[in-house]
Design a protein that fits this description.
By secondary structure, this protein is an alpha+beta fold. The chain has 3 domains: 422 residues, Neuraminidase, CATH 2.120.10.30; 134 residues, Cytochrome Bc1 Complex, Chain D, domain 2, CATH 1.10.760; 123 residues, Galactose-binding domain-like (Jelly Rolls). It contains 19 helices and 39 strands. The strands form 11 sheets. Strands 30, 31, 34, 35, 36, 37, 38 and 39 form an 8-stranded antiparallel beta sheet that branches. Strands 1, 18, 19, 20, 21 and 22 form a 6-stranded antiparallel beta sheet that branches. The protein has a 4-stranded antiparallel beta sheet with strand order 2-25-24-23. Strand 3 and strand 4 form a beta hairpin. Helix 6 packs antiparallel against helix 7, helix 8 runs antiparallel to helix 9 and helix 9 packs parallel to helix 11. The longest helix is centred in the last third of the chain and has 22 residues. This is Discoidin domain-containing protein. It holds the Pfam family Cytochrom_C. It comes from Negadavirga shengliensis.
């Protein structure tokens, strides 16, 4: 045993003895306030000043109260327990707290019921997020050795991590995890049984991303279909005996939380959006928009904390100082245990750490579509509320003991440093309540009910046989079923196939039948005959699961299933019809468009109508994209930009570029729309600088809930792809941006250390000059448009284009005279293939006689941009050819920019 392990072991023995003794105080009575500077708790309390330049009449600040107040002081866990408001019959108890754990953000249980804790020990240790990426975070593992309900023995399974994204138990003494700003998932194993991982193996790649730590991949989760899903990634991965495979999916939109229900529907938890996402259908079939899926009032939280300390500011503050619109969410769980009242089973729960609540979501199915609402909206309450401002629920889990566990980071700041910058509303409120130094805590709570004590059955799956695992598939607690299925698939022991087939065919437990079928699929032992029999099952749920599982058989050659998909698209149950359509679509069966059109004609249920309509739209969009007229390089940028946008940007800016609704009434937007935006379609410097350095504050007088954070950790190709996509999608036509251009802007602004304010940024951006009647346009040569007439050079500003009469010759020129001197900065134009100016020079003059050459350019197919750094005032701008070509010189959509 190494020294650190010895010290932990000794501490745990002491703690266990301490708990077993009759003491007036438990370890949960020790207050973190004892670690604070006592001076801060004494008056006079600091006066917080409004930062300079702030408009106190803006919605974010208007009505703000910055009266000096006593600081928020952390409580012991025993004292915090008294601050919870629970529903009748429910209780909440601490089972693991600081100092044993610090900054817990998520938990997972392994096959022996041991709890892995993701400890993000560098998260917001001060108001400026200093040291955020230091390698000091860890994954610890805990167990209850005497079965008294308290986790009393812990080991540091994995230490020295850079802000780890998730922990996935993956067999005996093995986990999967990934660090921030990494692209790789690794498998970590403890090979010698000392409780510490000593072997690291690459598991999968391509799942990571860089940038803000709140906007990176999280919660990799093994689902019932044997695929693994995570936030942000528009792909799923799967372990197989031959290696890890990947498939594309729709955009999950999630930020911090992935869970599944009893039927394998994966739910993703949005962060800033504050609501669940993609819970209608499996994400592999893409994204579907269901109007009204969040019922009226869903976005209104009922919080008992009234400090108005949230990023949107006073505009999302109720008169009593509490939050009026969900603005942050973290962690999620569809409760599937057996030791809480039955009405909770299948209900979705998530934490709103800004509102200090845990919400219970009630869902209803209507004609194949799901609609959700706050379970307690009628009483304007929540499943769990707290009056303690430091209650920060970041994860929820169904535990092996059949109850619900809640992870509480218990801290002052819950928003990352991009939202607490100097001059921000949130920073001002944090300082008012002196919450910036309340760090290093963390609690895990167990929720129980008076009528149902927790189960004391301790999992010991790692010591059991595969045959014993099969029996767990009938367990009333979904955690047991999930873990047993995972272990069976990882073991790949075909000796249990007969038992699984028997369970599918004869068990009276529908959930056990479903798990057994998917286990067969994971073992490569699912047969066509079985799924066809299940297609006839009396239960719509079994028919749906058989359809989903049959897709694997189709991929491996069972093309005769097409007939089954067509037949089941006429099923009497709308959810079965939807699944048949989605399977046919994702597998691209023959004449799937005719099947969809037929469904629209014959089935008037809302769900099939919506799904058939939106799939047809997806297919048409795919055809249009394939037929794009972009050059190969432009097409590459566009497609890459679309993938990034769908997986990252759409959560705030909307999947159609119209912005994502927010606010208590849904009438506001998280972020500005891109569709038709003159800023986006204007000079590309605006979008590039915004992505590189972030943007804060009102935009043209309008404030948004979200803050655009810096994306400069991504490379130039990534930035160019995103900007190119948003400038050419959503009805926009703004031209493409090259990685070279991004590199230029990055270099010019390399010394910038903070977000742009909009008014500051807009002063830097070259502004397009719109052609006026008093502009004089001329050229040395202009082609004939028709018999007896010439092509007007002013056509250069339109789609019609200007062109020389013959091949390009050195000395040919094109000129624009403006009515007054202007600080010209850049010229842009489009040229068709082969008709771009081969080599040209750009000159500026104040009188048309004396010229200053600002540089030389080389033309290319498509969009051309030429800019210069020198500040030159001029009335005339001229392009002249330096080198000739056999093709004519053609330009259209010419744009002049000035600073």
């Amino acid at each position: 045993m190494n020294p650190s392990a010895k010290s932990i072991f000794s501490f745990c023995i002491s703690l266990s003895l301490f708990l077993s003794c009759s003491q007036e105080k438990s370890p949960f009575d020790i207050s973190p306030a004892d670690r604070l500077d006592p001076k801060r708790m004494q008056p006079p309390y600091p006066q917080i000043q409004i930062p300079e330049g702030i408009d106190l009449e803006s919605p974010r600040w208007k009505g703000i109260d910055l009266t000096p107040v006593p600081p928020v002081v952390p409580l012991s866990a025993s004292e915090q327990k008294k601050t919870f408001v629970l529903k009748p019959g429910y209780k909440i108890e601490p089972i693991l707290t600081e100092p044993q754990i610090k900054e817990p953000a998520a938990i997972r249980f392994d096959g022996n019921g041991r709890m892995y804790v993701l400890e993000l020990r560098t998260y917001m240790q001060d108001i400026d997020a200093n040291g955020e990426l230091l390698p000091t975070s860890r994954i610890s593992r805990w167990e209850d050795t005497n079965n008294d309900g308290i986790y009393d023995k812990g080991v540091i399974f994995l230490d020295g991590l850079v802000f780890p994204r998730f922990v996935v138990p993956f067999g005996p003494n093995t986990i999967l995890s990934m660090e921030s700003n990494e692209d790789h998932v690794y498998k970590y194993t403890d090979t010698n049984g000392d409780g510490k991982a000593d072997k690291k193996e690459l598991f999968a790649t391509g799942l990571g991303r860089s940038g803000n730590v709140e906007h990176q991949t999280s919660f990799l989760t093994w689902a019932m279909d044997n695929w693994m899903y995570s936030t942000y990634n528009s792909r799923r991965i799967r372990w197989t005996p031959d290696g890890v495979i990947q498939e594309p999916t729709g955009n999950p939109y999630g930020q911090w939380g992935v869970t599944q229900d009893n039927y394998g529907q994966v739910w993703f938890q949005d962060g800033a959006g504050g609501v669940p996402q993609n819970f209608q259908f499996p994400i592999v079939y893409g994204n579907f928009q269901v109007k009204g899926q969040f019922q009226e009032g869903f976005r209104v939280p009922y919080s008992l904390v009234k400090l108005a300390d949230f990023e949107p500011g006073m505009r999302e503050t109720k008169p009593d100082g509490s939050l009026n619109n969900v603005t942050g969410a973290a962690g999620n769980d569809v409760f599937r245990g057996d030791r809480l009242p039955r009405e909770l089973v299948g209900q979705y729960f998530y934490g709103e750490p800004v509102g200090r609540i845990v919400r219970q979501v009630h869902s209803e199915k209507e004609e194949g579509l799901t609609y959700i609402q706050n379970k307690y909206i009628d009483t304007e309450t929540e499943f769990i509320q707290s009056t303690d401002p430091l209650f920060r629920p970041t994860d929820i889990a169904t535990a092996p003991d059949g109850t619900m566990y809640i992870v509480d980071m218990y801290r002052g700041i819950i928003q990352q440093g991009n939202w607490t910058q100097e001059g921000s509303y949130l920073r001002t409120k944090i300082l008012q309540y002196q919450m910036d130094d309340i760090v290093g805590n963390g609690r895990i709570w167990r929720v129980t009910h008076d009528d149902m004590p927790r189960s004391k059955e301790k999992p010991r799956m790692y010591e059991e046989t595969p045959a014993e695992w099969v029996k767990h598939l009938e367990h009333p607690n979904g955690w047991w079923r999930d873990m047993a299925q995972q272990l069976l698939v990882l073991k790949q022991d075909k000796s249990v196939v007969k038992n699984l087939v028997e369970m599918v065919n004869n068990s009276q437990n529908e959930l056990a039948r479903i798990h057994a079928m998917w286990t067969l699929e994971g073992l490569g032992a699912l047969k066509l005959e079985m799924v066809r029999n299940l297609f006839q099952d009396a239960s719509p749920a079994m028919r749906i699961q058989a359809l989903r599982a049959s897709e694997t058989l189709y991929k491996y050659g069972a093309k005769s299933l097409e007939e089954d998909y067509i037949r089941l698209a006429k099923d009497k149950d709308p959810s079965v019809v939807i699944q048949a359509l989605q399977s046919a679509y994702i597998l691209k069966i023959g004449n799937v468009d005719k099947l969809l059109q037929s469904t629209l004609q014959s089935n008037k249920a809302k769900g099939p109508q919506l799904v058939a309509t939106q799939i047809l739209q997806k297919m048409e969009e795919a055809r249009q994209l394939a037929a794009t007229q972009y050059s190969p390089r432009e097409g590459e940028l566009f497609n890459k930009g679309k993938a990034i946008y769908d997986g990252y940007c759409a959560a705030c800016h909307g999947i159609k570029g119209l912005g994502t609704p927010t606010g208590a009434a849904g009438g506001e937007l998280i972020a500005p729309a891109f569709s038709g935006s003159p800023r986006i379609q204007g000079h590309p410097e605006y979008a590039v600088k915004t992505l590189l350095h972030g943007l804060t504050g009102a935009i043209e007088g309008k404030e948004y809930e979200g803050v655009m954070i810096a994306m400069d950790s991504n490379d130039d190709d990534w930035i160019a792809a995103v900007v190119s996509y948003i400038r050419n999608e959503f009805g926009n036509s703004g031209g493409f941006v090259t990685p070279e251009y991004v590199a230029q802007i990055r270099n010019e602004t390399r010394d910038r250390k903070s977000n742009y304010a909009y008014d500051e940024l807009i002063q830097e951006i070259p502004k397009v000059l719109f052609p006026q009647d008093d502009w004089k346009v001329s050229a040395s040569s202009t082609a004939l448009q028709g018999v007896g007439s010439t092509r007007d050079p002013s056509y250069v500003f339109s789609h019609k284009s200007w062109q020389t009469e013959g091949p390009q010759k050195a000395g040919m020129w094109f000129q624009i005279e403006l009515p007054r001197p202007t600080n010209l900065a850049e010229i842009q134009f489009d040229s068709p293939e082969g008709e771009y100016p081969k080599k040209y020079a750009v000159s500026i003059s104040s009188d048309g006689a004396q010229w200053t050459e600002v540089g030389n350019g080389t033309g290319e197919n498509g969009s051309n941009t030429f800019g210069w750094d020198r500040q030159i005032m001029g009335k005339f701008i001229r392009l002249h050819l330096v080198e000739g070509s056999e093709r004519p010189w053609t330009m259209k959509k010419l744009r002049l920019y000035a600073r």
